[in-house]
Amino acid sequence: LETRPVLQGAVVELYRSLPARSTMVVADLGCSSGPNTLLLVSLVIGTISDHNREAEQEQRPPAAAMELQFFLNDLPGNDFNLVFRSLDRLQKLTADRRPQYYVAGMPGSFYTRLFPCRSVHLFHSSYSLMWRSKVPDELSGGAYLNEESIYIGKSTPPAVIKLYKEEYQKDLSLFLTLRFNELVCGGHMVLTFLGRKSKDMLLHGEASSMWDLLAQALLSLVLKMRVKSTN
């Protein structure tokens, strides 16, 4: 709800800037599969419909007619079949709205190239960019240990914190470089992800507490021999 005005503003600005009979390409990175997956598609269609309706009421010429192409991106293991089955319901909800739109899946990591150069007008990502592309090599290889934690917790050594920080810097720099090549001139990106107000990575907020609780639950399962430890 807090980011909706930002996203709506970006959509309207792009819509009014494009020439007649063109196609606006929108990519949702980290779309997942569930009740929230098609929210972006619905919001973009609704924003453009409302914009044209207001233009008619104010007797202003509406923006030029165009089509929308949506790409829903997530890792190949995502349940894209569930996403595609949800499209029928979306089509019924948007039957009386314009413009015409098309939806396609785009499996793959957003830490790799996904689209041709200068082909996407709007990138959107919600609560996905805090996920790393991989566990730091030194940690997965056993050079460092992060006992009783699955991310950064109270018992995490400073050396491991440094590894995660460096991995994040590399991942985010790579992400921005890739999207720069794929974004059209004058395009927009609306990215929502978790952050922190302090440089101290050990100061716990709700997210850190959640991972601590999950780590405790997994450790309990290991001690009860419900699951096997890989260490």
Automatic annotation (TrEMBL):
Signal peptide positions (record): none
Gene3D superfamilies: Vaccinia Virus protein VP39
Top-level taxon: Eukaryota
Pfam families: Methyltransf_7
GO terms, molecular function: methyltransferase activity
SUPFAM superfamilies: S-adenosyl-L-methionine-dependent methyltransferases (SSF53335)
Stated name of the protein: Jasmonate O-methyltransferase
